[in-house]
Amino acid sequence: MKVDRDPAQKRNAINGLNPYRANFIDKLLHPRARHAHAPVQFIVPLRDRHVGPALSLGLEGWLGPYERVEIDAGHWVVLREPERIAQGIEDFVNRHLRLDGTGESGTMRNAKADARASHVQAAYDLNCNLSQIATINARE
Prior knowledge:
mainly alpha, about 60% helix
């Protein structure tokens, strides 16, 4: 799917950084101890200029062993290639079902179904946020 470039994209991107600055930087500089209690996978778009691939390295202290999958894609891969991301999530869930050896428990069945639905919801939420930012910026 090809999407036409929005002429206001650069301005919206710059203004869109403000929520990240307000919510993310302090947490990055002063992290709290939080540990994962489930398998973790990072799907890492290598051409992401906004969230560098290095941010997903060296997290064993927080996560324990985790899976890191590098893909040739940019920052908006969830919007541009949602099926690719959904497939990566589904493959990850299926591998953990096989490693578990117990078959599809109710929890894993739900996780598998939710894996497909979650990428659609994430893409929708992101698109709504971008639309709100664009609307705000258009008013300025």
